Amino acid sequence: MSNPSRRGALKLTAGIALTGAFALTGCGRSDDTAAATATAAPVDASPATGTVTVWAAQGDADVLDKVIKPFKAANPDVTVKVTLIPNGEYYTKLQSAIAAGKGPDLAQFFPESQAQFLDPSILRPVPDGLVDKAGFFGASGPPGWPETSPTRCPGTPTPTRSSTAPTSRRRRA
Q1: Are residues 93 and 141 in the same domain?
Q2: 88 vs 121, higher pLDDT
């Protein structure tokens, strides 16, 4: 068994996160680019139609096709528009777009950066019953999810963590 590189592990994590995000996309967003509000209608569980905009950090480009193909196969009436943003600019541009009411339908967040986006006026809630939380972490679901939200969870967790154990050639010999 080979040990994945850190970059490979991050790509896998990003792929899993985007897969979860696509699974949750119940419908495309309308052309209305007005800022999201806490009273925005939640996404439903019907097949996606229209256009779904996805923003991802440029380093995740190679995993997107693996996620988009099965999503489009299950939702033939949807168009997926992907915008790749340089890694170092991703969260700044995402925050600016959301503040201007022009954010994407789907965006990937790493755990350490999610808190800045959890305001209910920014993210639409995941509809009740759309996601089987046992599919992520077993029968009990992840600790605190979706109980962390006073209403409903605004995203899905990605149960993937990777770590790299540095070694030296002398120790492997």
Answers
A1: no
A2: 88
